[in-house]
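fyi for ur records
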Amino acid sequence: MTRKHVLIVMGSENDFLKVEPAVKILRDLDVDVRVTVASAHRSPQRAAQVARSARGDGAGAIIAAAGGAAHLAGAMAANTTLPVIALPICVGTLGGLDALLSAVQMPGGVPIASVGVDGAKNAALLCAAILGAYEEPVATRLEQQRADQAKAVEKSDCRVQEQLSKNG
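which gave:
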């Protein structure tokens, strides 16, 4: 089996700062990642072509990052059968709630998954889990990342307990 990558599609280059944590996490997990800009509204033909060619280009999952009406994830899913994860971006006056509701209220038949507003970290980890279902090295790195998280929580608890014992 050839190694798959995660395709991140942003509605605007302005979304890159919100997407960058996903790029970092995927790279830390040694998952190849490609990032491109395509808008469901301003460049619908480009968005459709990016989605249609994703599988042939070696993508295993797509993160679609957009704010406002956030139709990008639906536009991607309409043009591919790869898993599409919506990454709602906080823009404007509604704090990203508009983008989140747009993502989670997709009509039946062409599903997407969604993470929380500005949830790039979870989007990346979900993509790693999807790829890890078929690529054992990715699964192993993801398991190690989770074990490292658990150790960090234990260390945090030790520091809190030390503070309590000093103050108590």
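The domain at 5-135 is CATH 3.40.50.1970 (Rossmann fold). thats all i got for now
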